Amino acid sequence: MLRRLLHASSATVLLIPMLGSWSLLRVTLVVAAVMALLMDVARIRLGTLGHRVERLVPVFRTGEAGRLNGATWLCIGYALSGWFPPMATAAGILAGALADPAASLVGGWAGRSRAKTASGSLAALAVSFVALWLLGLSWPAVLGGAVVGTVLERWPGPFDDNVLIAPGVACIVWLIA
Fold first, then answer.
1. Phi/psi of residue 22, each to 5°?
2. Contact 98, 11 (CB under 8 A)
3. DSSP per-residue string spanning 48-96
4. 103 exposure class (CB count in 10 Å sphere: 0-12, 13-18, 19+)
5. Number of domain units in the chain
6. In terms of pTM, does the model score above 0.90?
7. Mean pLDDT, consecutive 10-residue segments, the chain of 177 residues?
8. Which residues contact 114 (CB under 8 A, 6 or more apart)?
9. Whole-angstrom Cα distance, residue 126 to residue 132?
10. Which residue among 60, 65, 106, 173 sits deepest, i.e. has the most Cβ atoms within 10 Å of its Cβ?
11. Element housing 104 (H / E)
12. Which phi and psi (to 5°) does residue 109 adopt?
């Protein structure tokens, strides 16, 4: 549950433009992605450090012991989405922050904690739809972004879906809006 909460709370990076600027958000996202990548590589390569980090922050999955963790992939995805226009960036980050934990939570309730489920995908779709609608996007952009975010959340590929959702949603919102 802590992992889901941290994932969803990552949307708070969208407060940066309210306090500063979209340029500051872009710089922050790139710096955060580089720092997350460096820290994760250190965690993987330096066994003692890795064990300490994993005990200090108990959110790592067993399969992440020898590879990048979901948070690092999420930071990289946010950094990629930051290069789209502001509204598309906001849409990508909101979908990236909220769709995956919603799918995980609902999918877990459906009885399967690790595998992707249809009920989890419906939750991702609904949460993405509402988040993009609340941004005031056009109906085609809301629907397109929610569908793309849901499809990318189900990504079965060799790397984490967190790197795909934010830039994928940002791209489709930018193309449609």
1. -70, -30
2. yes
3. HHHHHHHHHSTT--GGGTTS--HHHHHHHHHHHHTTS-HHHHHHHHHHH
4. buried
5. 1
6. no
7. 78 92 96 92 78 65 71 93 97 94 79 71 94 96 96 83 94 95
8. none
9. 10
10. 173
11. helix 86-109
12. -65, -30
